[in-house]
Each structure stands twice: as C-alpha cells, then as structure tokens.
Amino acid sequence: MKKKILAALLSAAMVATLLAGCGGGNDAAETTTDAEETTEAEDTTAAEDTADTAEDAGETTADLSGMSFEIVSKGLQHQYWQAVLNGVNSRAEELGVKVNFVGPDNESNIDQQVTQLTNALNSNPTAIGLAALSTESVMKLLQQAKESGIPIIGFDSGVPDAPEGSVLANCSTDNYAAGGIAAENVYAAVADRIAAAEGTVRIGVVAQDNTSESVVNRGLGFIDKFGELAAADGYTVSVTGNDTYINRATCEVSDDAKVIIDVRVPASVTSDLSLADVNALLGEEDILALYGSNEHSANAIISAATNNPIIGTGDDQVIAAGFDSGANQLEAVRNGVLLGSITQAPVAMGETLVDLLVAAAQGETVEDVDTGCQWYTAENMDDPEIAQNLYE
Amino acid sequence: MGDVILTMKGIDKSFPGVHALDHVDLELRKGEVHALMGENGAGKSTLMKVLTGIYHKDSGTITYEGREVEFSNPREAQDAGIVIVHQELNMLGHLTVAQNIFIGREYMKGKLIDDKKMNEEARKLFDQLGIDIDPTETMSRLTVGKQQMCEIAKAISHEAKVIVFDEPSAALTEAEIEELFKIIRDLRNKQMGIIYISHRMDEIKVITDRVTVMRDGGYVGTLITKDCTKDDIINMMVGRVIYEDPKTESAVAKDAPVVLKVEHLNAGRMVKDVSFELRKGEILGFSGLMGAGRTETMRALFGADPKQSGDIYVNGEKIEIRTPQDAVQHGIGYLSEDRKRYGIVVDKSVAENSTMASLENYMKGMFIDKKKENDVAQKYVELLRTKTPGVDQLVVNLSGGNQQKVVIAKWLVRNCDILIFDEPTRGIDVGAKSEIYQLMNELVEEGKSIIMVSSEMTEILRMSDRIVVMCEGRKTGELGIEEATQERIMHAATLRE
Amino acid sequence: MTDKKKGNAFTDNPLVRAVGLQKIVVLLVLLLMIIFFAAVSKTFRQYPTILGILDGTYYLAFLAMGVTFCLITGGVDLSIGTGMFCYALAGGFLITHKDMPVIVGILVTLLCGLVMGTINGLIVSRGGHAPFLATLCTMMIVRGLGAIITGGASITWPSHSSPNGWTRMLFKLPVDRTMYPVGIIWVILAAILLSIFLNKTRPGRYIIAIGSNKEATRLSGINVANYQMLAYIISGFCTGLAALAYSSAYQSMAPSGGGGIELNAIGAAIIGGTSMSGGSGSIAGTIIGVCFMSVLQSGLPMIDLQANYQQIIIGIVLIVAVYIDVLKNRKLAR
Fold first, then answer.
1. Which end of chain C offers a freer environment for a tag, N or C, measured as fewer CB atoms within 10 Å?
2. Which CATH superfamily is domain A175-344 in?
3. How many angstroms away from the CA of B438 is the closest CA of chain C?
4. Which long-range contacts (CB under 8 A, 24 or more apart) does B355-364 make?
C-alpha cells in the first residue's frame, strides 16, 4: 500500500512538474542565471545626463562625511554582486561616505531580504539602495521609507512596478540596448557574407527562455537592431521560431526574406536541451551566425563548438557571440571560438548607485541611469576598463 | 512414531500486561504429525516463535535431539533443522521459484550466483516431493497452492528434522490440500517431526497422530487423535459443543421474491457469462476451487472491478453499477475476503468503522456527530454481540471474528439488504465462526439476502439454501441444498471446458 | 488447475519472457523514433548532433542506472539531480580555485557521491525514513552545499585545450579536430558490471528480494538494512560518475542547479521497465529508457517543434510509462 502511495505521489510529482512548465529545479536554475544578469525590463529609458549627475555629486564634496547609506542587494555570494560591491566601495571611499552593503543568502530568500530592509530602515540611513527580490513583500516598507523621508534608489533589477514616487530612480543595464550592441558587432562581421550569399542567410538566436524580461529584451534588442541594419543595406528580414520573440520583435519583416532570424528556446533550462537547439540551428544550411543571450545559452554554443568545429571566427565558420562572462566564455572569446561577448558593467553600476544615493540625499532630482555595457573580444578583454567587469 | 525429537517443558513467556504462555508443554516424536490447536490468541503462534528463536522464553526448557537448546534467531533454528512454513506466504513474487527456495544461501560459482545449479537442486527437491513445478518460473505466476508447495520445498531443503506448518491449508482448495497431505505423510514416513497448526477440525482427524490443545496461553492437554472425537477437541478448546451438521432443506419459500438478478456478467478473464438469482431471505452459496472466479464475480457485481457486459436487476429493476458507490446506493454490501486490506480500517475505532459507509447520515452540519455515531455503533455492538471494551476501541485490537462483525455492522448501518460475504470465516477461530453463522441466519430471518462465497465445503453445505458452483470463470452448476453433496459440488467445480 | 496463470502465446514465448516484453516494445519504439527523426530532420542525422545526443546520454545513463537500484528496493533517490551538480561543483572548485591536481578533483567528486549515498542509505535503512522524504531532504541539503562550497559562483571545469583538459577526453577524444564519443565505452562497461552485480551476485539478488517482499527477505536471515543501504550507496557513486560525465559534456554548472534531472533519470528507468513499487527492473532496460529519453529530448527541437509542445510530448510519454507500471502491478496483485 505504501508503495502504491509513493508511486502515486511520484507520478503526480512528475506530471505536475511537466505540466507546471519547467519544473522546480529549473526555477532554481533561472534564479541562478539571473544572478549574473542585471534584469530590468521596464526601465529602458536611459538617462541622458549620467555624467552630469555624477559630476554634480562629485563636486559637492563639502559635507558628505555624515552620510550613511544602506544597500540591500539580491545576494552577496555571486561574483557579479561582488563586482557591484567593489564599485560601491571604491566610490564611497572616494566620497568619504559610509556604506553598509547586505544581501540574502540566495535569490529565493525573500524573507531574509525583507528583514534586512527592515533593519536598514530602522538604522535611519541617509538613503537606501535596493534590488528587490519581490516588490510585493517590500511594499509596506517602501511606504514607511517614504513617510520617514528616506529616499530609495533602485539598482540592478531595481524595484519593478514600485508605486509612483517610492523609488526615486534606478541604475541598471539596458538589456535591450545591450542586445543591440551585440547585433551591431555580429552584423559587421557577417555583412560581407550576407552580400555574397546567393540564397537566404540565417542568424540563430539561442535564448534560455521566453519568460524572463531581461532575457527576452536581450534577444529582442539583438533581433530589432540586426533587422534594422539589414534593412538599411536593402535586405528583407523575417523572424521565425519562438512565438514570443516573433510577436514582440519590432523590426520590419517580410515573407521570403533574405535574412532569417531564427529564435530557439528550449523546453526547459537544461544544458542538453539548449545544446540540441544549437545543433538544430547548425543543421540549417544557410546558418551564418549565432547569438547566445545569456551565460547559459552562450555555454550551449561553446559546448556545441567542441562537438562541431564549424563554430569559430574563421572565414568559413559560423560566427558566434555571447552575453555575460564566466570562465567558459572568457576562454572561448580568448580562443576565438566566440567572436565576442557583451559584459554588463557591475563596477560602474556600483559607482553610479553611490552617486545617485548622494544626489538623492541632497535633495537633487535624480533620473534613471543606464550603467552601460561593453562588447569585449579577444583583443580588448585585457583592458583594465573592461577586465574589471569580467569575472570567472 | 519414533523417538522423541523435541520437548518443550514449562515454557513461560510474558509481555507487558499479557501472560502469553503459562507453563506450556509440548512433545514431538520423529515420524509424527502433531496438531497444535487452540482458538486465536491461545498462544500457538507465540509458542512457535519461542521455539524458532523469534521470541525468548522467560523460563522453561527446550530439548532438541537430546540437548537443551535456545535459539537466538530463526536462522539458528533453521541451521539446527527446525523450520517453519508460515501462514502468510513469505514469497518473493518477482524472483523465480529456485531463487526463492535458496534465498539467503545461494549456490555460488566464485563470486557469482550459480542459478543453473540452483535450478537443478530445486528440481531434485520437487522430484523428491513428487510435485511438478518449473524452478525457473517466476513465483508470482504460480497459484497459491503451488506457492505453498515451494515454501515446503524450501523448508525441506534446509535438511529439516522438525517442520512447523502454521495454518498451511487456509488458502488452499480441497484438491491442493489433498496434495499437501500426501507430502506431509511422505515427510512423516521419512521420520521427520511435524507440528501442524490448523483451525479445520476435519483435517486434524485426517492427518495428525496426536493433538495438543492450548487455551488462553495455557496447556490443556494432549490426546491421541484417533482415540478422540471432534467434539472432544473442541470441548478442550472452548469448553462447549458447537459443531453443527449440514443443512438439509432450504428455509426460503418457493415464491420468495427475487431481490437480485445477474445476467450474462463478463469481466476480465475470470468472469465469463455468469448468471444467477438471489431470493429474499436466502443464503446463496458460491462454491468452487481457488481461482474459479467467484471473488472476481462479486467484485465485478459490486463495481470494484470493471465489467465488460452484463445486466443487473435489483428488485426487478435494471440498474447500472460502475463503482462500489453505485452498488452501496442500491443496498448491496460487500464483505471482502481480505478484511485487513479491503474491509476495515484497522487503526480506526469500532464506531468510526461502523459508520464509514454511511457517514452522510451522521453529520451535524460540516462535522461528524460523534454521539450519534457512538450510539449506532453501540447498538450494533450489542446486536452482533461484538466483543469489544467499547465503541472507541481501535479495531486492530479486536480478534478476527470480532473484526468481521464490525464489517457486518458497517453494512447493516448502511441498511444494505443484499450482503455479499466473501470467505466470511477465513482465519477466524471455531467459536467465533459459529457466532458468525448464527448471525448470518438471523440476518436472513430478518429478510436480508446473503451471497456467501466460501472455499470450505462444510461451510457451504451447512449454511447455503442454494449453491452456485463455478469453475474457471464460468458457472458450472446450481444445486438446491436438498440435492447437494460434496461429490456433486466437486464434480461441478472441476467441469473444465 | 493449471500450473501458471494464463498469458497469451506471445508473452509466454521464452525469448520474450527472458528479455521482457516492455524492453522489446520500448526498443522498437525507440528505433521507430530514430527513423522518424532521421527522416524528417537532416540535422538529426549529422555527426555533431549525434555527439550532442550522446553528451546528454552519458550522465543520464549513470544517474538512471544508480537510481534503478533504489527503485528496485522499492525506494527512490531524489537527490541525484542536484547531487550531480553539487559533486561536480565541489570537484571543479578544487581544480579551478584551489589549484589541486585534476585527479584530486575527480576523486573528490566521486567521494562526495559515495558519502552522500551512504548518508541517504543510513537515513532510509537505519532511520527508517520513507525514501521519498529522506532523499527529498538530502536533495535540499546538497543544493545548499553546492552553493556554499563555491561561494555561490558557477564552476567551469578545465576545457579540452587546457593542460588539465584530459578529464573531458575521458568522454570525448579529439583526433584531428574530430571528436570521438569514447564515453560510450564507460557507459557500456558500467552497464555490464552493474548488470552482473544486480543479477548474478548475492547483494544484487537481495536488493531485488527486498523490493519484492522486505519481510520475507528479513525472515530468510538476510540483513535487509545493509542491502537497502547498499542500493543508495550505488546510487550515490553513480551520481558521482554522472557528475564527471556532465562536467565533461557541458563543462560549467551553476550552484543549486540540477533539479528536475532526477525525474528524467527516474522516468528513463521506468520507461525501461523498472517498477516504481520495487522488485523488478534491469540495467539493460534502464539503458534503453535513457536512450529513449535523450533521443526524444534532442529530437523534438530538430523537427522544429516549439518548446511548449516538447514538454507536452515528454509529459505524455512519462504518464504512459508510469501507467504501464501501474497496470503491471495491478496484474501482479491479482
């Protein structure tokens, strides 16, 4: 009898997992990957005067020593957050302000983050920096902060859907723009080949999912920019594959197009399924380039490259670009397996965050800031400016 | 009978609150079949567990082959030559016959198991016993009877000198019992000592040489079987005469209305085109060998298993039964052959079990009306003379017979007019058996109708007004009690296509 | 009374009985599936695709073979998916962050599996916990441990071209820029050894016996707890091997990942005819089930089926497999 119950439970679990979409484990995988990414969808409006704000803050050094800031991140353990912390610390030291940087043990520990934010509020800081795990659960605290007159600045993914006026500004990576930068570089590398091709050419986009806004925006940014560049050169473009991407792409599309942008999304976030996606793309005769829109997808391309030497930067090879870093990608970029990859600027994000906090504390008007991203290749990846943002 | 091989003297064993064995004596000779009798709870199993080292005795001596022994576990007893053939079959259904027989002491060829050798040895054992079983067959594919034979073969393969049979015939058909007896006689001729535990009085007379009777953990006495009557033994067990003779004529009026009619019922491979009628106030016996499809017929009728075709009429009205729920709604109650699995919830109280099938009548809003539940349970405890300290007693603590009464109460509370009793007295001791019989008679007198599936010929002949006989899924005979004899029933039960 | 319960002519055929009906059917479906994918998708026939499918087969094969032992005892091991990630993270961490020799990393990975398997076995056999719950708990534990060991960072095992890259060559050997899937050798070797162990040695026989009827096994004088524990140790060790295969195929892994993979492995074993209620199962069946799963998973994207449809199909396949198992048990209970 017990066995039967177990069997029933287990089968129920299996079915439930499958029906639920990607399964519990995959949620975990998603959150981990998200850690490496700066996710922010809504705030794609980049501030025009980033530099000004920073300078303003820098100039008013007169009386900053009394300021103390609390920063609540999504986690401390990940390399990405360490880089943000480095940026925060260096700028804080420069300005002579006190900063306390905390974060929960992992990115699903919402309770812990709420406690940390409560503690931060209770210590009555000059301002608070926040990357919320869940807007819902911090809503009350946001209200409390507003009432106590403590300004809040969002960073990384910020505080999505926060009530009007509770978060003064966000500093985050513009994922859509970042995808565009990848498209520009990939297009430049294959432009001649598109011109030379007699039939259609295919650009493969390997995306981890179609649910995470940051991942989707990186994909859409790439698709739209690539389509725009191709159209400018007089080619027709179409988008195929995953419906989410097809529906949300804004570049002009037509039937029987010369340039096909083919977006693949795995059934669940596992390495084997993403690898199968890459292999499926490589199987298309007209494939010209691949773009993996986060570390997971880029790694899938690199795995495929070990099986299939067709991927590389040579003239007859399929060009590939990635996103974020990690030991695997860094090595692939260095070895010429990947043409290049996009890195966010966590250090700059940390610095900008402190600037915004200071500005907000002084009652200045603050606006959202795109902390930017960089295209890195084998040639430039050792530049200190870029190397500081790369991590293994 | 030869020399004494085993003597247990003054065995005493207490568990917290229970004096399970009170200075019990038992003597076993070589070449003897020695019956150990007593009602359930008399201490037979405990005594055997002390013998084979599962329990440790508080005092007393066990002398085996002239030496005083005390085994600390069944393995030691086994190695010394004392083995037990358990009541519940201890088979490993997924393994082969030979793998079962030699489990725990496989023949090895270096580091690997020598299955070939094991098959050969098993075949030799079966030859020795004169039974035909393929050692490479998977255990679960054998019939219960054959599985029992394998258990015996396993016991013998231990080079046993003393074999204890713990109710070996409980699950066997008459034919299989015959085969079993043949083997037992054979073992007796080989000068083994055999202890035979059984409830069946007929068997005791047929197969055993001496009888030791226990009652309430104490030793009552030992008799030479052929010098005593059944009633002598039963008197020693319970202190009263209860054995009754077969029914001679039907108590049902010829024109009693038909309450249940089943036509051309087909279900799975075990129920083929079965039709029968049940009249008001009738006990309809279902006889047949093990695997004849009787239980399957009842389960299909009750909606517990799916049926392919067939019409069912209750009180002349055609009804649809797809689930047990449908059956219960039409007043049909089913007392399963396997009480513990299907009949009762052992770790619930008598009251809770009593109202299980009709809980909707014992609700006060969203909650169970505990008082009403207790009242009705109490009523049926009294009515059925269920021996329980109270209605809040957990069913697990009741004896088999009283558990069966709780199941009956469940269906009476539900107000079922048609009751299906599937092996109602299996595993129940003689005293309780007689009470169940009496109860069934009272029920039909009140106008209930009963279908009784039973493998015990005496039970069929004693209780039924009419008898349906099945063989291999088909109905092969229908006899009024007036014309029914053992021979006629057996003839129909073996009418193969 | 006949000697056996009746079957039909086909299921009573000695060859069919020896191999097992389910295995034959699944193997046939697998072959049909391969033919179908190969016919529809040109990509499916290409060598790199086959390499990719094999990458996904190795680790799943080790996991599924290990968990087969637990399933046969009537238990289950849910910690294998996250466990595989945890052990690979631990071993990889030593190599890449602590500059330990590669062999140390490999041994630590395997040792982690052994230790965790032993812990699972102790909890189940001595602690008397239900395997489902016990291994659900250890699943959480290893998920946490993996993140703690690496400080939350993902780990990338040495690549082919690096001096320490020989670990990856154990599963894929590069000759003239072409990869040879030598991992097949290890999987087949492990399958043969485990199969002999299961069917031809005493511990293997007792593991089956426990799943068939634990009480009867105990009464036969067999130390049930020891052999039950052994099943979990084997599962743990196989998870260690799977961790090596995984790191060889995909090189990098993130902490707290790997959840859900255990269901693929259990699913593969069940497709191969291992019963969830214990007592029956075979390594050969599991291997067939693993091939079935990995071909299906890799093949579906190749026929341009979108993600959501792939999930539905895989879900249906598993439901069918579990249902067949339920049917078999019902038949056995009769």
1. C
2. Response regulator (3.40.50.2300)
3. 32
4. B355/B410, B355/B413, B356/B410, B357/B328, B357/B333, B357/B410, B357/B411, B357/B413, B357/B414, B358/B413, B358/B414, B358/B415
